[in-house]
Design a protein that fits this description.
This protein has one domain: 3-Layer(aba) Sandwich (Rossmann fold), CATH 3.40.50.200. It has helices at about 5, 55-65, 95-100, 105-110, 130-140, 215-235, 240-250, 270-275, 290-295, 310-315; strands at about 15-20, 80-85, 115-120, 145-150, 170-175, 180, 190-195, 200, 210-215, 330, 350, 360. The protein contains ten helices and twelve strands.
Length: about 375
């Protein structure tokens, strides 16, 4: 990354990242002045600046932490965070459950805001057509969306949503050698990789200390989002398509450019390669760099009870060719760093964690 070198060119100033997570604590030393809680619409603002788990605060610091007071310094320390708390199983209080916004409502609100990037460090294996509609709406508003592919590769390796929806960049986790983590979900919906092993994070919601062994596609999603913030800050007139295209074109990989890996997509993000090249060609502002993946649908998808067969067949991304495997995987295992969420009004409530999940069905009909 060479963060110190990149920061001579860009620190993410002027870019806002909408963070959908467990809420964000704006009072940590690293996030003072970095969290724009007042910009969250009232309809979806419930407890946005109260983090019951520390997950959202950790992601916010990885993106935009200033490092003040010995805190975590993020990759884009001049970017700003617009926090959205979304419903997870960690929300126990019945009042909180009623008032905490759904992923659908949070995505729509972020789409209507002036945040350029939507970062979603969570995953589920259940398709929700309402979430997919919200994602497509956000894409129509020019947002660049990132989501973790999931942390269950060593057992079920399900297809993770929202990462597998069209127009969401699916992010896998890699170590410092560029090797994908054993836990990192793989498949034809992985678009990019980013650092996601041995990453520091807040140990718990008391915010008293950091832990340094964080593994997960959550961390990788935050780093990918911050990478995009650095580029967009340096090139404010670019579109989401152009920012993403340059990330893809400059990604680190051991396979030919244009081919993709089921483990790390088109490679590991290297924003430095974009920032240091003043003559880089970002391509067409209107052309989706993942148009092939976004147009053909993921294979092997099972629809949720509330989704029709036709909805399922159109739900996500696929790549028929160029599926070059990464040259190995890390032996390290996943930590508790991926969030499972309630998807939409008729979705399922899923537990926070890197492994098994519990599903509680809604009583609402199809």
């Amino acid at each position: 990354m060479d963060a110190e070198g990149m920061w001579k060119i860009s620190t993410g100033k002027g870019v806002k990242v909408a963070l959908l997570d467990t809420g964000v604590n704006p009072h940590t030393s690293s996030l003072k002045g970095q969290v724009l809680g007042d910009e969250v619409p009232q309809a979806v603002s419930y407890n946005a600046t109260k983090d019951y788990d520390s997950h959202g605060t950790s992601m916010a610091e990885l993106i935009a932490g200033t490092g003040a007071g010995g805190g975590l310094q993020g990759l884009a320390p001049s970017a700003k965070i617009v926090p959205y708390r979304v419903l997870t199983e960690g929300v126990k209080n019945s009042t909180d459950k009623k008032k905490t916004p759904s992923v659908v409502d949070a995505i729509k609100a972020a789409a209507d805001s002036d945040a350029q990037i939507i970062s979603m460090s969570f995953a589920t294996n259940i398709i929700d057509p309402d979430v997919e509609k919200a994602v497509k709406y956000a894409q129509s508003k020019g947002k660049l969306m990132f989501a973790g592919t999931g942390n269950d590769a060593e057992s079920k390796n399900f297809i993770g949503y929202p990462a597998a929806y069209p127009y969401v960049v699916g992010v896998a986790a890699a170590d410092e050698k560029g090797t994908v983590g054993d836990f990192s979900e793989y498949g034809n919906y992985v678009d990019l990789g980013a650092p996601g092993l041995n990453v520091p994070y807040w140990c718990d919601a008391t915010f008293r200390s950091y832990c340094d062994d964080g593994d997960g596609t959550s961390m990788a999603t935050a780093i990918a989002s911050a990478s995009a913030a650095l580029i967009w800050s340096a090139h404010p007139n670019w579109t989401a398509n152009q920012v993403l295209r340059t990330l893809i074109d400059t990604a680190g990989r051991t396979w030919p450019k244009g081919d993709r890996s089921n483990y790390l997509g088109y490679g590991i993000v290297r924003p430095r390669k974009v920032l240091e090249n003043s003559s880089i060609n970002p391509g067409s502002a209107a052309t989706d760099p993942l148009s092939f993946e976004n147009g053909t649908g993921v294979t092997g998808v099972t629809a949720s009870p509330s989704a029709s067969a036709s909805t399922s067949s159109q739900a996500s991304k696929d790549t028929a060719g160029g599926q070059t495997a990464a040259a190995g995987s890390s032996s390290q295992s996943s930590d508790n760093t991926t969030m499972w969420v309630a998807l939409g009004a008729a979705g399922a409530v899923l537990v926070i964690g890197g492994g098994a999940f519990a599903v509680i069905r809604s009583r609402r009909g199809a």
